[in-house]
Amino acid sequence: MRNLAIVTLLLVASSASAQSISRRYSGGFPGKDELSAELGLQASLGGTTPGGFKMFFDYAHRLSDIAWLDFKLNPTFDTGYRAATCVDQFGNPYPCGYAGLYGNGYAIDLLAGAKFKWLLRNRVMPYCNIDGGVVPIFARPAGDNGAAIVVNTGGGVKYFVHPRVGLGGEVNFTLGPGFYSGPNNTGHNELYRAFNFAAGAEFIL
User: Fold this and answer.
1) What is the DSSP letter of 184?
2) Which of 10, 14, 109, 121 is 20 to 30 A removed from 40 (C-alpha atoms)?
3) 117-131 mean pLDDT
4) What is the pTM of this model?
């Protein structure tokens, strides 16, 4: 009789533990704060928008089961070769990186907005975001540093290998007016436009 009681208690405890883990994966997150870090690339979609190696850092605070307040700090590093020649709007040539992916200086996305997450029973979490903010642009080949006012939107998928650790990737698109000012009247305004993709980890605190 005693052995039966012990076995029953063990089964009940095991069932409760399994249900708890299931709820943590399917119904909600085990914490209200998130930190994520990813590595990827920014691809310029034309003009003099910077492109190159990019790092993605997020902090988000949960407001509801789905909605999170989101903050982003994403630096882009100009890793291009100075093997091409670009021409500014006044017809002046200057060395620049290969068009489309590399070159045209460094940038840092300073963004805030909202992130929406859906944590499913199979530990998969699709999500999307919309953010706005400022992108300082500096160390440009022509010296015409500046800034852009942008909207950033996109999404991705994470798979939770642990209730507090998810791995996966995302893509997003950044768009907005850019304002550049430099020496010898090289300043100009143009559309800042870039496509980003990255992979990394998310941590629920």
Assistant:
1) G
2) 121
3) 95
4) 0.77
